Amino acid sequence: MGQFYFGQQQYDLAVDHLKKSTELDLNYSASYNMLGYSYRNLGNYDEAEKAFKKYIQLIPDDPNPYDSYAEMLLKQGRYEESIVQYQKALEINPGFFASHMGISNNLIYLNRYGEAIKNSNSAYDIAKNDGERRFALFTNVVAYVDSGSTDAAMKEMQNEYNLAKNINDAGAMSGDLTAMGNILFEAGRYDEAKAKFAESLSVVETSDLSEEVKENSRRLNLYDMGRISLMTGKLEDAKKMADEFGIKSAAANNTFQIWLSHYLNGLIALQGKDYKKAISEFEKSNLQNPQTYYYMAMAYAKDGNKAEAKKNAEKCANFNALVSLNQSFVRNKAKEMLSTL
Question: Residues near 248 by Cβ (< 8 Å), separated by ≥ 6?
Answer without folding.
Answer: 219, 222
